[in-house]
Design a protein that fits this description.
Length: 349
């Protein structure tokens, strides 16, 4: 496809979405940001973008078919990137209704509105249109501890209401391509980390708790293994897939950097000990083991060989580089983040 002029992103005030918005504007795109502004999506995440002449924001819900349709018709994007989602496993275990509503029904309504818009296009506009759907490695379930990494052909086997709802959204996007010809591309990504992430996820929760000298809660024995990627690497992949990805395909995105949770927490503590040391102790002393959560998958890991062949890509950031950038940002933003997030923070990840 030709390089698009206008991209509509849903969830652009969230973690990955806000990084995508900033990169898009820096690259010269016109960006239409549609976000409901739930607890994890904040205008503060894109405060540096709001006065940009190529930036347009709509506070809207992807479940609202009519509202999304009006935005599409008015703004005429060449690409829709769907990042709007409920994403936290613990919250889905406590109450899964919002996950089904946003991740399944919301994606369905967004696909419906995008299909109607797509069918109204003609010529080069129609040929160039893309719908990029961001998903998770959790749809595949747990990888055996010593087993091969999962890939695009691995059957879905979700373990939580969150991962089940994301599996449903993936299958819906796939069905809209097969049934109606909507040009979808599905991206299943491993754990992202970086700046602007809501502190219910492992890395920002550990950093902020440590800075506040609060316990660092670790589920079970802490040996759950996760595959990590720095958010800026993910955003680079998404932009390349917009123009180089195969319509109807899915891609596994991975930094191929696996860490047991407890080992990663030790690394975070070591970095904090160097960057902002406590007076008479190490941050390691704050580590506290808590009861494991229900249905906790032991290992996630993806094989990104298909992606690497398609776009000749490899990560730019090592875990040490990415964590250093991330920790520096949270140290600088700690007071503001504590005030902003205290009402919504969960106790464990």
């Amino acid at each position: 496809m030709q390089t698009p002029d206008t991209i509509l992103i849903t969830g652009g005030c969230g973690f990955i979405g806000s990084h995508f918005v900033r990169r898009a504007l820096a690259m010269g795109y016109r960006i239409i940001n549609v976000d409901k502004l739930t607890y994890a999506g904040h205008l503060e995440n894109v405060s540096d973008c709001q006065s940009h002449p190529q930036y347009v924001f709509y506070q809207s819900d992807i479940c609202d078919f009519d509202a999304i349709g009006k935005i599409l018709r008015k703004e005429q994007p060449q690409v829709v990137v769907n990042m709007a989602a409920e994403t936290h496993v613990d919250r889905s275990i406590d109450s899964g209704a919002a996950f089904v509503q946003t991740n399944v029904m919301g994606t369905f309504q967004l696909l419906q509105a995008s299909l109607r818009y797509y069918q109204s296009l003609s010529g080069q506009q129609k040929q160039d249109f893309r719908f990029l759907h961001l998903s998770t490695d959790e749809v595949f379930g747990a990888v055996p501890p010593r087993g091969d990494k999962f890939c695009e052909t691995t059957p879905y086997n979700p373990s939580s209401p969150y991962s089940a709802s994301k599996a449903g959204s993936d299958l819906m996007a796939q069905a809209f391509h097969k049934t109606y010809g909507l040009p979808t591309i599905i991206v299943n990504c491993v754990n992202n980390y970086g700046t602007h992430q809501f502190p219910e996820k492992l890395i920002p929760l550990m950093i902020l708790n440590a800075l506040n000298q609060q316990p660092l809660p670790v589920y079970g024995d802490g040996q759950q293994i996760r595959d990590w990627i720095f958010v800026e690497d993910t955003v680079e992949v998404l932009f390349q897939l917009i123009t180089k990805g195969v319509i109807g395909a899915s891609y596994c995105v991975s930094g191929e950097d696996e860490w047991a949770n407890i080992d990663l927490i030790h690394k975070i503590c070591d970095l904090l000990d160097r960057k902002k040391p406590l007076a008479n102790a190490s941050y390691q002393s704050l580590i506290t083991y808590v009861k494991d959560r229900p249905g906790h998958d032991r290992r996630y890991a993806l094989n990104a060989s298909k992606l690497r062949k398609t776009i000749n890509w490899k990560p730019n950031y090592s875990i040490d580089q990415g964590l250093s950038i991330t920790i520096d940002w949270y140290i600088h933003q700690a007071e503001t983040l504590n005030q902003l997030f205290d009402r919504h923070r969960l106790g464990v990840l």
